[in-house]
């Protein structure tokens, strides 16, 4: 027998008992289902057996890491179901998992003998339910990386071959479901019986695998198409395919082949073309108030400067205005449930004063412009005045820019709304996507360390609070934008890697942020590093790594 300690209670179990068996007998969670466990501080899959005394902490689908394992495992089951259904139809196909959409994942099928239809998805969904009811084990096997590359090469899976060509690790794990195997980075649930909640929906040229949200892991939310978001994400994927850099392996090929500088210039040119097109729309529609909003680390400041340059090239005179300068004085700032200042909520901004000032500007008056002093937490007036001429436009940037309440006092016909986010356009391979939030978190870690002296540990500790603010104040309004702009760059994670890795390695092993740092370091290990010296000084990435020609 061995002793296991679970939330302070000690139990005796037979040596060799699996974590899954222990979880079923002693595990408790308010919502969700236990899918992983920490054994003496190390994250483990539930297949792991206990052979010595251990302290256990169970992880459910309400936890970030547990929910990720659920989604990852669901992709594996979907791939198996698609292969089985296509095989019955006498054909084969290739699924690409592209990006998040409407609480699910947008995917595309490439097949000579089949196309996405409601009938096909019903068959696949039925097969997924069969696999779930059969509660089939998801088995893990370890191979030499070189042998695994040969194995995938024989299967014609070039995305995996590209990826493993640059793997430093000697060994790699493959997950098998019956006769179907695939590579995934990150742990999986023990069996298909855990994967009960999902739906498939046709959308555009592909389909969406709809799954629950972490806060309600047993409820599949309604499918609400996000057409504008889809268009900008699809454009980014098409760019990656056009440049032959839609996966990390493709990016590493470009770096190893000496083509990274050309790739940087092409990507920057594609972004600049989009910014110029937005400026032309603003001019053609004779808009006076440009409202720019987006989540943390999306590059709003650099974008607003680059958009202003394009507007000037069209003969307009842009005036940048930061909504941060309309913060209420610190003592009037609302507090969140933990008693901390909630700078993300709308009430942290003096909405009434902002609307009064902008309305007076549009009416031809001259006004005093505020500056918020972050050191003392007060709004100040330092003699800066503004009066609009005929060719002048206001370029207003802040997280609440798209919220109708923020500009309720201004005429709708004067507004042009831009939503900006760093929407990851690169995936690890065809079945392992890179979360947009990971790219933004990595950006913020680097910028916070460089401009605010914050440690990576502090930035990670704050990230959940930042994300909650985004969910409440930004994402609900993104489809109301006139245009969306993707600020992510295909090459950026290779450039930012040398900046962020030392910061992540500095996080203490015994801290609660260590596991997230370890996950990000493992993820960054897929990328070859690149110097930042050839990045243009007006690049959005310069806002984070430094060297921007703009005041950021």
List the helices and strands and how they pair.
Layout: E1 2-6, E2 9-13, E3 17-18, H1 19-26, E4 34-39, E5 42-45, E6 49-50, E7 54-60, H2 64-88, E8 94-101, E9 104-110, H3 118-134, E10 138-144, H4 145-154, H5 158-164, E11 171-177, E12 180-182, E13 199-203, E14 206-210, H6 227-242, H7 248-256, H8 260-284, E15 289-293, H9 300-313, E16 317-322, H10 351-362, E17 367-373, E18 378-386, E19 392-397, E20 415-421, H11 436-452, H12 456-473, E21 483-486, H13 492-505, H14 514-524, H15 542-545
Parallel strand pairs: 1-7, 15-19, 15-20, 16-19, 20-21
Antiparallel strand pairs: 1-2, 3-6, 4-5, 4-7, 8-9, 9-14, 10-11, 11-12, 13-14, 17-18
Description:
With 552 residues, the chain is an alpha/beta fold. Helix content is 38%, strand content 21%. It has a 5-stranded mixed sheet with strand order 2-1-7-4-5, sandwiched between helices. α8 (260-284) packs across α9 (300-313) and α11 (436-452) packs across α12 (456-473). The longest helix has 25 residues, at 64-88.
